[in-house]
Design goal:
By secondary structure, the protein is of the alpha/beta class. Strands 7-4-6-5-9-8 form a six-stranded mixed beta sheet, with no helix packed on it. A six-stranded mixed beta sheet has the order 16-13-17-21-20-18, with helices on both faces. It binds adenosine monophosphate and magnesium ion (MG).
Length: 413
């Protein structure tokens, strides 16, 4: 049996990032930038006021206090969005609004709360100011020509803000992988039929499509292939328009497990393993016509675990991501865990962030067909291949598979 780490390495060696395409910057959210973005101008473009108040010459108000204010002549009003009409000379001030360009000659802005207008068109200033006070300097954020976002960056709302600031409405991003999803099995019927005796719903097709979508990729649901080579080949031919193919079931050693044979017959450089993991031991992987094809196991939990460990990093790599693995956390076990050593175990668990740190509870019902445990879980406890388990209160490695651990039903201020 091959280890999880080796299988992952061999698979990822075959995966290349997809090409790039243009997208508007909001649609680009969650995707990976395929070009460096540089700024044509700086930000702010010019010195501007950080306050509503008076732009003035800092030396004119030296020694000003509430009791002994300095009086300056107000030469004009300067709202945001307008340009200065004249320079500020000794003894003068400009009534300025937040964001308006600082007029030439002015070296500080005094906030309106520390001033009082007079009847005769002047203003009393009640305080001193430092050189440059309340002035946002041109280029303090970035300068013209700076690279503001590097190629390979994940586009988050902050990157969208930056792109809009530098006036870029469209960017080149890596393509979203299109992923064909095939379920195999004579026992399967679609979810809009009531399963007759001996048949079950094709849950994997839907679970895998949603896992694909959660990766930011696009699922193409091809439905059910029956347990014969012709039916499988037909679905695989239909799958050739996609960038990646995943199937579930038919990879064990049963009489009707044809996935690996068919992948081979269709020209795939087939690799088939028993991977030393539980759940999810049988895994077929190949490349057909340059497209990676994953034959995942049929048991519902096995296919989800195998997707998480092997397919998800592959899809993220295709989408141009560098950070393709789930980050593991260390957490304190609330219960003993007994395991038969020999395979890496992924135990469905509930991870909780408490004041004292992360706590993790392995859930009852770890069978590879027990979906209710998966519904209650938010993470896997990772039990190394050679381990026979842990005692309560030991610190163990946990792989959260959704963000629920970081969310709460009350604010925590
Ligand atoms: P297999 O590897 O094809 O023998 O499948 C292993 C187990 O997973 C069997 O109990 C199947 O009924 C079940 N299974 C296979 N495919 C699906 C599917 N698409 N949805 C739900 N269960 C499945
Ligand atoms: Mg089957």
């Amino acid at each position: 049996m091959i280890s999880v780490e080796s299988a992952s390495e061999i698979i990822l060696n075959e995966i290349k990032p997809l090409g790039i395409e243009s997208a508007d910057i909001v649609s680009a959210l969650g995707r990976v930038l395929g070009e460096d973005i540089s700024a044509r101008g700086g930000n702010p473009p010019w010195d501007n006021s950080a306050m509503d108040g008076y732009a003035l010459r800092q030396e004119d108000i030296k020694g000003a206090t509430k009791e002994r204010p300095v009086e300056l002549k107000v030469i004009y009003d300067l709202p945001a969005g307008q340009t200065p009409k004249a320079q500020v000379n000794p003894g003068e001030a400009v009534r300025i609004m937040t964001g308006a360009p600082v007029p030439p000659g002015a070296t500080a802005v005094v906030m309106v709360e520390k001033t009082e207008p007079t009847q005769g068109g002047a203003v009393k200033i009640f305080t001193e100011a430092k050189q440059g006070e309340n002035i946002r300097k041109a280029g303090e954020d970035f300068r013209a020509g700076d690279t503001v976002i590097k190629s390979g960056s994940l586009i988050r709302p902050a990157e969208v803000s930056m792109l809009a600031t530098v006036g870029v409405p469209f960017v080149f991003v890596h393509k979203r992988p299109r992923v064909a999803v095939i379920s195999t099995g004579d026992e399967l019927c679609d979810i809009n039929e009531a399963p007759p005796t001996g048949k079950i719903s094709n849950s994997n097709g839907y679970a895998l499509a949603s896992l694909v979508a959660e990766c930011g990729a696009e699922p193409i649901q091809l439905g059910i292939a029956r347990d014969n080579k012709e039916s499988l080949k037909e679905k695989l031919r239909a799958a050739m328009t996609a960038d990646c193919i995943i199937s579930s079931g038919g990879v064990s050693v049963g009489d009707y497990d044809f996935v690996k044979d068919v992948l081979k017959e269709m020209g795939s450089s087939m690799i088939f393993w028993k991977v030393a993991m539980k759940p999810g031991k049988p895994l077929a992987f190949g490349v057909i016509g340059g497209k990676p094809a994953f034959g995942l196991p049929g048991n519902p939990i096995s296919s989800m675990v195998a997707f998480e460990q092997f397919v998800r990093p592959a899809l993220l790599k295709m989408a141009g991501r560098k950070d393709i693995f789930r980050r593991n956390f260390m957490a304190k076990l609330t219960k003993d865990v007994k395991i038969k050593p020999g395979r890496m175990n992924f135990l469905r668990a509930e991870l909780k962030a408490e004041e004292s740190g992360f706590k993790v509870t392995p859930l009852e019902g770890q069978g590879s067909g027990v979906i209710s445990t998966m519904v209650r879980a938010n993470s896997f406890i990772i039990v190394p291949q050679d381990s026979s388990g842990f005692a309560k209160d030991e610190i163990v490695k946990v792989q959260p598979f959704d963000s629920s651990v970081f969310m709460a039903d009350k604010h925590g201020y």
